[in-house]
Amino acid sequence: MPQGWVLYGPASQDWFPTSNTSNTIALNDADNALRVRFIVPKDGVLDAVGIDVTAIAGRPPQYQVGLVTEGSAESWPTTQPTAYGGSGIALWAPTATGFQWVTLPTAASAQAGDVISAMIWPGSTAPSSTNNITVRRSYNTAQSQRAILVRYYTTSWTNDVSFPTMAVRYNDGTVALPAVTASLQDSFGSGSSPNERGCVFTLPFSATCVGCRFYHPSTIATGPSVVRLYSAGGTILAEAPEISSVRDGFSDVFWDPVTLAANTTYRVARLPTSTTNVALQGIRVLEASHLSWWSDGGRWQRTHRTGTGAWTDVANELYMFALWLTGVSGSGGGPTLVQSGYLA
Prior knowledge:
mainly beta, Jelly Rolls, seven-stranded antiparallel beta sheet, six-stranded antiparallel beta sheet, 2% helix, disordered C terminus
């Protein structure tokens, strides 16, 4: 990229689901298991693992849920996994479907940089074809795997090159893995309601904005659009056309430099200019605080409106946008270009 330019925002880290189709695994045998390998992003106390249950058959036995060392997880089922950081393994038999936090009987003392796994596997009583649970394994495909890896076991450990749906929580409410409850692929045209969609955001520093990047998820949403940068009061600060084609992936648009102030609300949005749909990729998380897992994602939220009506902001969702910036300055210290939990 040009000298002095930075890319700031959730789409500056290419780690997000690129499909709204999810994968599941039925834990219906003594050797069925699911785990997610990840890097601990910060020191702290990890106290819960999140699991999305999609189906319950009969009366399932208790499953084991925990944070385990990576080497021992890979050795299962020959040997039992070793709990990480002095934590305890929970015994858990869900009685309802949906996303659920499983609290560890003893929390883990975690150190940044440790490579560990969140895991669910059978307890002393094996599940069966009539008494079992099915859990969401991943959202199909991801923009980049980085150091995070979904692994599942039926007859051997298999990689799932997708975005994980298991989550890991610190005792202060922040997350080492976010609880993603939906992958958003929104197609919309000039006749849709809402028909203008994007993100509302603030910057922790002042900077000059020269354009933006967003992720276009669908090859069938091929309409033209403009991308606009707004002030909080609705003034159009910048605008540039984006002509879609039969492709998916990142799109970049550029405009004349606009000065942005620290801790001031702005919006960046995509507006279709025909009835042929365009598309945006996004995510929904269980709680708004989980958005901070993405690069400064806690400062970004999904926003939309119809026509020239009022904007609606959605606190626990965001679209994958980022800003091209120059002249970053101020006490914010500059953009977080490598977010905790990622490897550059």
